[in-house]
Every structure is written in C-alpha cells, then in structure tokens.
C-alpha cells in the first residue's frame, strides 16, 4: 500500500492550457483603463449627464394608467377588506382553549404526538407572552392570502403544464416575482389599492404564488406515462383523467407547494405591516424595532418563528402522509376521529362564549407587559460588552468591508489603517499577485490564475474603483463561454439598464456586500456542513437551528444584528449571513453524505488520509450539489438587500426603500428589477456551469 499512497499524495501535473485570446484582450483592456482612469474619471464613475430619465417616463405611464383603473381596484380592495376583517373577528372571538385543542388534533393527525406537544407549547408561549389577539390577526391574513395564492398558483401551474409554448414566459414571470423585492411592487399596489391591510394581503398573495406554480408543474410533469395510459384505457375522459388520475398522483408535490406557499405568505407579515397592517404580529415587531425595545422585539419575533415552524410542520406532515398512501379504511377512520375532535373544539368554543360572553379569557398582563427588565438587561449587556461588539464591527469594517468597497489603495491611509502604501509596497503587492498567477498557471491551467488575477485587482482597486466597461465586458464574456450568446446579451442589457439609470454606485455597493456575505457563508456554512456530514450528533444539533433560520421571516434577523451592532453595513452583513447561511450547511452535508460509497472505499484503500478523501474525492464529487447550495445562498443574500436597507445600507435595496417612501414607482421598479436581474443572472450562470460540468 506504500506505493499507491505515495502516488495518491503527489498531485499530478496538469497540462498547461493557454488562455483564450478574449480573456487576454480583456486583461490588456483592464490595465489600460486602470492607467487612464485618473485622466478619464468616467471610466469608473458614470456621469450623471449620461443618465436617461427612464424612471420619470415610467412614472408618467403609471400615473396615466392608475387614474383610469384606480376605481376598479379600490372597489376590489373594499370587497376584500370585509372577509379579511371578518376572519380576524372570528379568530379573535374563538377562545384559546378551543383553538389549542383544534391545533393539537391537527398536529397529532399530521405528524404525531411530538408535533402535538410542540404545538401546545408554542401556543402556550404565545398566550403567556400576551400576543394571542395579534397572532390571530396574523393568521387571518395568512388564511386569506394562502387560498388566493393556492388557487392562482394551481391554475397557472396547470396552464404551464399543458402549454409548452407558454412555459418560458411563465417561468420568466415567476423568476421576476421571486427575485423582485416586495418593496418594489408595493409601490404600484399602494397607488392602485390605497393604504391599508388589503395591500398587505395582496402583496402576500403575489409573493406566495410562485412556489405553488412551480410545484404544480413539477408534480404534473412527473406523473408516470403508464398511469396516464391506464386512465385512458379505463375509459376516462380528458377531464376525468386529469382530476381523478393525474392530480391525485401529483398531489404530494402539490402539497409541498402548498407548504412553501404558506411559509412565503407568513414571511410577508412584517412587510404587510409597513404598508398598512393592523394590530398583528408584524406590526408589533416593527414597532418594537423602531422604539429600540429589543426585549419586545425578541418576544414578538419568536412568536412569528414559532408560528412559521408550526405551520411548516403541519403542512409538510400532511404532504408526507399523502405520500405514504394510507389505505381508504385508515383514512376514513382517522378522518372520523379528527372530525370528532374538531367538533368537540367547536362545542367547547360555543360553550365558553355562552358561559362567559364578555370575558377574553386571556392573561391580564402578558410577558410583553413585563419586558422592561429584559430591555434594561439587554441594553446593559450591550453597554458592558460594547468593547467587544465595537471591536468586532470595526475589525470587519476596516479589514474586509472597506477594502472590498474602496480597495487596499483607498483603505491604506493614516485615517483608516494608520499607514500609507508606499510605491515599494504597491510593487510588492503586484509581484505577489503575479507570482501566484504564474504558479497556478504552471500547476493547473489559466482559469484559477485568471480568478486570482481578478481577485487581486478587485482587492487593490475595490469595487467602487473598478472600471465599469471592463466589469460589463468581463461578465458578458463569462456568460458567453458558460451559457452562450443569449445570456451574454441579457447580462449586457441588464447592466446597461442599471448604468443609464444612475444606479451603478448602488449596484457596486450591493455586489461587494453580497459577495462578502456569500463568501463568509460558504466558508462558515461549508465547514458546519462538513462537520454535520461526519458527525450524527452535529447533524442533530444543526437541523433544528437550520429549520428555525429557514422558517423565520427576514425581518427577524435584523433584531439581534441591530441590538448588538447598531445601524451600519456590518449590521446588514450579519443579517444577510443569518438568512443565507442555511443553504451551504444543508447542501454540503447532503452532497457529502450521498457520495458513492464504492468511490470513497477505493480512495481510502489507496492510502488516502481523511483530509485527502474529503478534499480530493468527496468534495469534487459533491460539487454539483454544493453549486446548487451556492445558487441558493446568492438568491437568499440578494433577497435580503431590501430588508437590510432598513439598517443603513446604500445599495439597490436602499434605492427601493427610498422609492417606496416617495411613492416613486419608476425608480422603485427599476431598482427592484436590477436586483431581480442580478439574481436571475447568477442563477443562470450557476445552472449552466453545473450542467456543463455534468456533461463533462
């Protein structure tokens, strides 16, 4: 075994592949632009005189359209407001013992005794915390938004399934709906429907529709052809075959879509509170954050997290129960038992209201009325350990955020780093980068060498100091080589739209903030994923943590970041990382656990150490799955931009939020589409890279 071990440990020399001519030309153009940017500052900063008034044109069109259609939408708003308030009154009227009994029965039917116990504990916390009426108001919004999203999503999914020509248009619309920040399409909704809870309902319904559409199409597409043929041979008409054969077969996947739709609607409760929510949990969280009452923020945010986890487990439990396929007798028996328990809950509710018609049966003072001590304790904790939190924030700000934004050349000044880069230091930096590129070029090929050269240049100039023509051409060339001409043209068109609207500075701020967040998530989340893949105990510990992070609404992540680090870009970075760290943990663990066992055994028999097995066998084989995790991490980071704008960023998310405050539909739409463009471009690039690796 000695010889094979030695041969495994010695890395084979890879034949040096010459760099393609376009990349060499782009490197030369980059050097030329960096030399000339002092004399031609427009190479870095796009002049305002060159921008186009596209936002004003969109506003003019919007004003004309809104004037014509506004009465019809206001009538629809009034029609939706009545059932929404009716549902809220019914849920608030129901006594909490009856609600607990009904939810426990549903939990027991869905996933067993453990979920029933969790449901009782979660509802007890909500009751004792003093947020029971607010929670019922939140559920009234979800209970109305989810059916709208489910029916609309199912109809669109069926349409996409039966019409292949319409599917690309539908998928493109879904990409926009899922990537455009909610703040962006709140502006036209406010203009059409006015200010009030109905706007939050409609925004939640729009945001929650795409998961149902995608899962409906996926479920119907995966119906086996032999099942469809069996239905036809049984004499079914096309309608009977669809409703009695195809839909029941696709129902498990459709129920997964219902689960994701419900979670998406619940995640919008705080956004709904911003644009006209009533007394619900979202409004409580938002009010507590504005008052810097961190104790109440944590209590109310925990209510949303518990509701999200409970609803997630309930809906996914019913989907799994459908997937296992119980017999008809068992289904009827469990249905009868469930109906009996729900009937008892209804009878209990009526009896309680008959005996105590004027009593709320709620605690006189919930925990939220007694959090003054918690607020003082948290403020004292922040004050006593301010040296640690300030040191951590300043260290990341001055050593990572600023170098990425303005570059080493801008950060190395006495006011920031305490010294200035001398010409000798600049030359030494260039020599180190070039030597690293030469070593990689000699040992591997031109691709890692080019990556190091780009990273070294960006680190020196910063994102703000990098010439925009080179950036656009570089991304277009990458898109062309990875996915073809169509994606390259899409990249050029998207960046030019951002450029001519004067949003290039905001784009750069978004890019460097998301880049750092994604890199840190990959490092930290990837390490945790590897740990979970090798340790069952770590996997059991991380699973509930990831579940909680994945089900919490985005606003909740701002609470701890804002409490410990105050307003600023570092706070936004922490919030983005908390939201985006789950995909690398899950996908790295999943990819490593599902590597072929025979390959791992062969590598270990060659004498490889555990580290060599991990880095030279398992991770390369799991790379397609890890790349999907990278895709989801980027999507999550970009989706948090508009939320992170609330804590002081100056990126595209801030542009969307400012446009919402001014009711500027044109700028809000363009800034929202810019974020959607970045998300779609990153998604298509990674998908094409994974597909290309799979074919090779």
UniProtKB/TrEMBL annotation:
InterPro entries: MetI-like (IPR000515), MetI-like_sf (IPR035906). It comes from the Bacteria. The chain crosses the membrane at residues 21-44, 50-69, 89-107, 113-132, 139-162, 182-208, 261-278, 298-316, 337-356, 395-419, 426-444, 450-480, 487-504, 510-534, 555-582, 621-647, 659-682. The keyword Transmembrane helix applies. Keywords: Cell membrane, Membrane, Transmembrane, Transmembrane helix, Transport. Its main location: membrane. Residues 135-315, 507-686 form the ABC transmembrane type-1 domain. Pfam families: BPD_transp_1. Signal peptide: none annotated. Coiled coil: none annotated. It is found in: Cell membrane. It is a multi-pass membrane protein. Belongs to the binding-protein-dependent transport system permease family. This is ABC transporter permease.
């Amino acid at each position: 075994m000695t010889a094979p071990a030695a041969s495994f440990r010695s890395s084979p020399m890879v034949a040096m592949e010459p760099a393609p001519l376009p990349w060499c030309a782009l490197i030369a153009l980059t050097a030329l632009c960096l030399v000339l940017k002092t004399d031609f500052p427009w190479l870095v900063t796009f002049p305002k005189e060159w921008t186009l008034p596209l936002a004003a044109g969109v506003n003019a069109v919007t004003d004309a359209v809104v004037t014509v259609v506004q009465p019809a939408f206001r009538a629809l708003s009034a029609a939706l407001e009545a059932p929404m308030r009716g549902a809220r009154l019914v849920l608030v009227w129901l006594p909490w013992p009856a609600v607990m009994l009904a939810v426990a029965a549903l939990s027991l039917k869905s996933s067993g005794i453990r979920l029933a116990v969790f449901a009782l504990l979660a509802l007890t916390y909500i009751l004792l915390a003093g947020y029971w009426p607010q929670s019922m108001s939140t559920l009234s919004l979800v209970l109305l938004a989810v059916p709208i999203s489910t029916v609309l999503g199912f109809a669109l999914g069926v349409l996409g399934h039966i019409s292949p020509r319409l599917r690309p248009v539908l998928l493109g619309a879904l990409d926009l709906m899922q990537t455009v920040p909610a703040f962006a399409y709140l502006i036209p909704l406010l203009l059409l429907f006015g200010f009030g809870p109905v706007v939050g309902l409609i925004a939640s319904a729009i945001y929650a529709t795409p998961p149902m559409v995608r899962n409906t199409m996926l479920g119907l597409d995966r119906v086996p052809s032999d099942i469809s043929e069996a239905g036809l041979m049984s004499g079914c008409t096309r309608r009977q075959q669809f409703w009695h054969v195809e839909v029941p077969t696709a129902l498990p996947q459709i129920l997964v879509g219902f689960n994701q739709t419900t979670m998406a609607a619940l995640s919008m409760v705080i956004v709904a509170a911003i644009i006209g929510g009533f007394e619900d949990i979202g409004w409580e969280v938002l009010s507590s954050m504005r008052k810097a009452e961190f104790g109440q923020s944590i209590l109310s945010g925990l209510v949303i997290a518990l509701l999200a986890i409970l609803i997630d487990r309930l809906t996914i439990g019913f989907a799994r129960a459908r997937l296992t396929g119980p017999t008809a007798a068992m289904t009827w028996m469990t249905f009868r038992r469930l109906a009996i328990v729900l009937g008892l809950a209804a009878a209990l509710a009526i009896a309680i209201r008959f005996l105590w018609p004027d009593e709320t049966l709620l605690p006189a003072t919930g925990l939220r009325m007694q959090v003054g001590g918690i607020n003082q304790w948290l403020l004292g904790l922040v004050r006593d350990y301010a040296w640690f939190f300030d040191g951590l924030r300043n260290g990341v700000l001055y050593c990572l955020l600023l170098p990425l934004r303005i570059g080493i050349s801008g950060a190395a000044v006495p006011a920031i780093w305490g010294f200035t880069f001398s010409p000798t230091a600049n030359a030494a930096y260039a020599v180190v980068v070039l030597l690293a590129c030469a070593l990689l070029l000699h040992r591997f090929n031109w691709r890692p060498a080019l990556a190091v050269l780009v990273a070294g240049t960006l680190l020196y100039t910063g994102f703000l100091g990098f010439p925009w023509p080179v950036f656009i051409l570089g991304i277009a060339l990458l898109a062309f080589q990875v996915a073809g001409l169509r994606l390259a043209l899409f990249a050029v068109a998207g960046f030019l739209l951002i450029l001519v609207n004067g949003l290039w500075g905001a784009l750069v701020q978004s890019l460097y903030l998301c880049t750092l967040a994604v890199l840190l998530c990959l490092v930290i989340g990837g390490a945790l994923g590897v740990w979970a893949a090798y340790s069952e105990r770590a996997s059991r510990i991380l699973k509930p943590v990831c579940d909680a992070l994945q089900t919490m609404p985005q606003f909740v992540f701002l609470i701890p970041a804002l409490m410990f680090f105050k307003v600023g870009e570092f706070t936004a970075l922490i919030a983005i990382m908390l939201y985006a760290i789950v995909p690398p943990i899950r996908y790295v663990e999943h990819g490593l656990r599902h590597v072929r066992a025979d390959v791992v055994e062969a590598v270990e028999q060659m004498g490889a150490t555990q580290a060599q097995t991990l880095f030279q066998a398992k991770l390369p084989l799991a790379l397609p799955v890890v790349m999907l995790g990278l895709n989801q991490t980027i999507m999550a980071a970009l989706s948090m931009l508009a939320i992170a704008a609330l804590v002081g960023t100056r990126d595209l998310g801030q542009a969307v939020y400012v446009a919402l405050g001014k009711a500027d539909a044109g700028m809000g739409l363009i800034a929202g589409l810019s974020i959607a463009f970045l998300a779609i471009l990153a998604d298509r690039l990674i998908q094409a890279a994974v597909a290309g690796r799979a074919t090779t």
